[in-house]
Amino acid sequence: MIIFTSILIEFQQWMGYLSYFNPQVILLMDTKEVQKEPEEDDLVIDPYQVVNTTGKQIDYDKIITRFGIEKITPALLDKVKALSNREPHHYLRRGIFFSHRDLDQVLKQVEDGKSFYLYTGRGPSGESLHVGHLMPFIFTRYLQEAFGAIVVIQLTDDEKFFHKTGEATLEEFTRFGIENAKDIIACGFDINKTFIFLNTDYVGHMYSNICKFQRGITINQLKGIFGLTESDNCGKASYPAIQAAPVFSSSFKHIFGNDNVRCLVPQGIDQDPYFRMARDVCNKLHVDKTACIHSQFLPGLYGFGTKMSTTDPNSAIFLTDTPEQIRDKINKHAVSGGGTTKKEHQEKGANLEIDVSYQYLRIFLENDERLKQIDHDYSKGIMMTSEVKNELIEILTKIVVTHQENRAKVTEEQVRAFMKIRPLDYVPQN
Q: 147, 88 in Cβ contact below 8 A?
């Protein structure tokens, strides 16, 4: 009975999870249809879009319940601190990385003297990245430094070619990938512990694992998770297995040899369907499920529910922006939660849930005490919107200018070195 109950709970979570990404999902199982009706239409999250019509911060506790994931607890943060001998990153302390799948098991393996590796990636849709794209790389670099972990970074030029039909050639997406690699390298990854690869270059080395994933995933699952239709090109159907394959350490024989090393994937919550799917296949193959750790979203400058887009340069702070552009964008376009008049603001204070500048400070201001002071003063009307924006301008300008300086130092030779198939500083498992 205990086993049956566990299976039933897993099944219910899986069905709820599928419906959250595609409310019209119908799975055919033993010729019977199982359907979950949509419960909410003010929030849609999938790998291709995030639609938030609430106008405020997403209720991430609700996402935890709906996705069947685990909240990152203070006890887990204490364990991270103890095992890494350093304070947890402020992304963890502030709940920006807020949930996980099996992070506790990864930390247990570290306690037992076993290694894990980190896998993250980038879909190269253009040459320029915005500050939101930095978040997973900043956090992954921290984990690399804290635990001495190997990092593999996938550049999905093939996926962008399949999904952005007519926008660019495959060769252009590949070139975007090389340009994006320079931004990733500029984040400070250890070349002796980091391997960056383009799918179009490396996919052959993962092909046996891709085949295992492809056989373990049904067309109905792909339709349910990713909303595929009969009119979609077949590349869209084949691609999910390619993104899943790097969770097997055997996809990187030149690094791990024959060791079975567990994978931890830092990711935006919108990427979770790929790895929930991957975990199900891991279960079928009787190997350790990949672990995941999920981040919140960074809103566009126009507010929650808006996108950061290269087609609208005022929607985001890009890593190519000048200090003058950064100042102009934040002053003119960052949505404020402050009062419409000075009097109203001093009486009622700011609504921090909708204030974009404050939300950016949560992510990019490292000093906890200063953020706490801003939280208090701004919400009480003591601090004005212009002061908060000026603080953000100073911080983002420093981050972007420093990044530009570091990127300018990245040579073509360094890019080739990071992308070369080679042994890394991996300590074999006991």
A: no
Per residue in 261-304, pLDDT (tens digit) is: 999 999 998 889 889 999 999 999 988 999 999 999 898 999 98
Place of tokens 């685990």: 70
Distance CA 268, CA 287 (A): 24
Phi-psi region of 355 (alpha: psi -120 to 50; beta: other; left: phi over 0): beta
Annotate 7-17 with b (16+ C-beta within 10 A) or e (fewer).
Answer: eeeeeebbbeb
The answer to whether 356 and 314 are in contact (CB under 8 A) is no
Rounded to the nearest 5 percent, the helix, strand and coil shares of the chain are: 55, 15, 30
What percent of the chain is predicted at pLDDT more than 70? Answer: 87
Q: What is the C-alpha separation between 371 and 93, in angstroms, rounded? A: 12
Q: CA angle, 299 as apex, 344 and 153 as ends, to 5°?
A: 155
CB within 8 Å of 172: residues ≥ 6 apart: none
Q: At what angle do helices 207-216 and 272-284 cross, to 10 degrees?
A: 90
pTM value? Answer: 0.88
8 A C-beta contact, residue 200 and residue 178: no
Please give the sequence-ordered ranges of beta strands (E in DSSP) within 202-318, or none if there are none: 262-268, 291-295
Sequence-distant (≥ 6) Cβ neighbours of residue 5 within 8 angstroms: none
Q: What angle do CA 116, 119, 124 make, to 5 degrees?
A: 170
| In contact, 265 and 117? CB cutoff 8 Å | no
Buried b (16+ CB within 10 A) or exposed e, 329-342: bbeebbbbbbbeee
pLDDT band of residue 225 (cuts 50, 70, 90) is confident
Residue 265 near residue 290, CB atoms below 8 Å: yes
In degrees, rounded to 5, the angle at the alpha carbon of residue 103 between the alpha carbons of residues 375 and 261 is 140
Which are the contacts of 77, defined by CB distance < 8 A and separation ≥ 6? 88, 92, 93
**What pLDDT digit, counting tens, does each position of 193-218 carry?**
999 999 999 999 999 999 999 999 99
Strand partners, 57: none
Q: How far is CA 294 from the centre of its chain?
A: 6
Q: Identity (one letter) of the amino acid at 23?
A: P
Write out the DSSP string of 179-198.
Answer: HHHHHHHTT---GGGEEEEE
pLDDT value for 55: 67
Instruction: Flag whether pLDDT at 337 surpasses 80.
Output: yes
